[in-house]
Structure formats: C-alpha cells, structure tokens
Amino acid sequence: METIVAPITPLVTSAVIILRVSGEKAFDCVDNLILPGGRHLERGNIKFRHVYTGSFIDSDGSVLDEVVFYFFKSPASYTGENVLEISFHGNPQIVRKALSVIYEKGIRAAEPGEFTKRAFLNGKLDLTQAESVASLIESKTDKGIYYSFRQLKGSLSKKVIDIKNSLVDISSVIEAYVDFPEDDLSDHDVDFVTQKLSDVLDDISKLIESYKKHRYQREGLKIVIVGKPNVGKSSLLNSLLEEERAIVSEIPGTTRDFIEEVISIKGIPVRLMDTAGLRGDGDVIESRGIEKARDKIEDADIVLVVIDLSNEIDAEDRKILEMTENKNRIVLGNKDDLANDVSGSAKSLIELSVSAKYRTNFKLLEDMIYSRVCSDDSELYAGEIITTERHVALLKNLYDILISVKDKIISEHLDLISIDMGMALDIVSEFTGEKYTEEILDNIFEKFCLGK
Ligand code: GDP
Ligand code: ZN
C-alpha cells in the first residue's frame, strides 16, 4: 500500500499544524529531520513513542522549521502502519513546503478518511468504531459526544456480536435438522428457537427505536413559538438566545418572516423558530405568514404557545390554543412582571408563567422542554444508540428477515429458514465490517474530513 501524508490539524494559521505520514515509507522522512547539534537520526536508532525535537530541512538542506516529532511502529499505531507525526509552527506556507518535500519521496496526499480506513483494513477498528470517529468529531452536543465515544470504545459492536451469537445458536439448531429432512423440529427446539428469535427481535427493535428517539440529537429539536401579535414571541426567542437577533418591535405583527436560531438546551440542539403573529381573521398581509405558521406548527416537535398575561385572554388566544390542542405544546403566560390577576378559567390553561423581558422562570422552561422529549432518557443512556442511516437500514432489513423466519418456524420450512439465517448473518457481518465492499467503504469514508 502506498504511503500517505496529510495534516491532521486544520491547515490554517494556528499554534501548530501536525502532519501525519503513514505507510512503509513513513520513516524515509528521517532524512529531512535533523536533531539538535546537527546529527541525523538513523533509521535503525529510532525510539518509538519518544518525543523528539529538531529541524525539518528541505531537499537542499536549508531549515524549513523547528519541529517536534514522534514515531509509531507498525502495528502499534492508529493506522496499524508505520506512522510519523511532525508538528510544525502553525504557518500553512511552511507546511505546504514541507508537504512538497515529502511528496518527492513518493509519498502521496491522503484522501479524507484514509487513515481511519486503513485502521479498519488493518483490524485496528471495526466498521462501527470507524464510523463513530466521524460522529465523534461532528457531534455538537455533550450527549452526541458521549454516544459516539461509547461506540468508538466498541459498545455497539459488542451488542451486535451478542445478536450474532444468538443467530448462530438458532442456525445450529436449524442446520442439525436440515440434514435430516424426515425429522420434525422437537417441541423443545421449537421453543428454544422461538424464544431466541423473540429476544433478538426485541433487541433489534429497541435499537431501531433508539434511532427514532434520537432524531433530535442529529437534526435538532424543532420548537415553534406561536401566539397572537405582541405577546412577546420575538422577545422570548431573543432572551433564549441571550442576544438580540430577532426583530423586536412595539408594532403588532412585524415579524413577517420566520426567524430560526439554534440554541442548546441541556445538550440538545434546539431549532427555535419565531412565527408571524397568528391572527384568526382579517389582516391580508399577515395571512400568508399564518398559513406558513400552520405548516411550521405541524412540523414542530414542541410548540410554545405564548399568551400575554398583561391582558385578558381573548378569542384570538383561544383560537390559537384550539389550533395547537393536539400538538406537543407548552402554554406559556408571558409578561408575568405585568400580570394582572388573570381570570380563572384562562389561568388554568397556562402551564408556566415567564417574563421574556426579565428572563424569569427560564430554567423551568428549559426543564419543561427537556422533559417533553427526554422523559425516558435514563433507559436510553444505558442502552445502545443507533446514530447512522446505514446501521438503521441494516437493522430494519435484519428485523424483516427474522420476522419471516419466525413465521416459517411455525410452518417448519427448515430449508428456507436456513437460507434466511444465512442472509441474516451476512447482514450482521456488514454491520461491523467482517464483510464489506469497496462501495460500502467509500460511502463511509468519503464523509470524513481530511486527515482523519
Ligand atoms: P411578538 O409580536 O409576539 O413577537 O412580541 P414582541 O416580542 O415583539 O414584544 C412585544 C412587546 O412586548 C415589546 O414591547 C416587548 O418589549 C414587550 N414584552 C415582551 N415580553 C415582555 C415581558 O415579559 N414583560 C414586559 N414588561 N414586556 C414584554
Ligand atoms: Zn415578533
């Protein structure tokens, strides 16, 4: 395999830029590394995992930079190959020159994800672990990082191996009969296989469920703020953002367009959207905005219905309450600081009183939002989380096959079951990458950033 090189830090002006060289020719670079005192480092004398300081020289011997470098010997490296990492001062110009010196040795630029791909091909990581490297880097929330890290440590792979072991157990029972077509499955074996299948199907559907439940971890939780004009929607959005970005105005109904901002509530990315004031009737200019607002309400995970506590609840408020009745909503009384004693029946509708202006009860509001989507979080935290489209597609496939196996147990089509079980085991192998195609690998690794 060719030797490859790439910056593993961004190639921008910064404190340091680190180049990683991986492959058989990695240690050829010692020719360009001079130790303090002008000594050359001999290839045979390299101390691995030892931090050296020295100079990086170009082809005609002039010093390009003072560098820090260290070597890893195959297979004890990230990629499983010989690896050299050189840390330069963070000037991209210096590093580009160094790269061209390295290219002259027949070492080529690495493609995005190529280091991790090699780690996979050399058995340092299985496929789910390799995929978690990308999600770990991309995760925007504490939880995303937590799950990716667990996956990197192999927790999902372990779960998949458990599933595989159960499938192997089932298969061995079936295979024992396939060779003796005159025998029927014993009651004991039918029970065993059926029970195992149910357990596995249960595990798989939990995994598929975890993907759905964590949709908002990937895509963000969609929250729409609705209410009639002037109740304080934009102020609420602004205060939640803790900066003034939506347009706040004294004139009712000036938020024509939808303003969307992303905030983080307890580690969940939240897409917060302000809508034009909803009005039941009349205003032509606003009506288009209202139609759009209806769509946004349909689409939202949570709707914040804002009511102005400084005024009596009126027909317009009631209309909006009606419109959102079947949604996962939180009815907020805003302008708590100006609140008159709001009359009885209306008050009972309000779930939380806040002041967008003075940011009172925001902590409670965030708790409330969080608990609306994460009530069963502790259970999910303990279980495995499926985070990629590829995994969920494989699991759905597996689920369907095993359901049909379950049906066939009843009708005792053992030869067909044997074929199904073979397919099921193939899917499991694709999961961790025991079986893979170039296409699968390309799909996974092309999404990586350069240097990973
Ligand atoms: P929107 O039309 O629903 O988006 O309402 P705005 O956010 O533009 O607010 C309308 C007016 O109410 C502005 O003058 C805000 O300063 C004021 N306002 C909003 N929230 C509060 C609050 O909690 N207390 C007080 N006293 N005024 C508020
Ligand atoms: Zn507004």
From TrEMBL:
GO biological process: tRNA methylation; tRNA wobble uridine modification
Protein name: tRNA modification GTPase MnmE
Function: Exhibits a very high intrinsic GTPase hydrolysis rate. Involved in the addition of a carboxymethylaminomethyl (cmnm) group at the wobble position (U34) of certain tRNAs, forming tRNA-cmnm(5)s(2)U34.
Assembly and binders: Homodimer. Heterotetramer of two MnmE and two MnmG subunits.
Record has Cytoplasm as a keyword: yes
Domain TrmE-type G: 220-374
A molecular function (GO) term: GTP binding
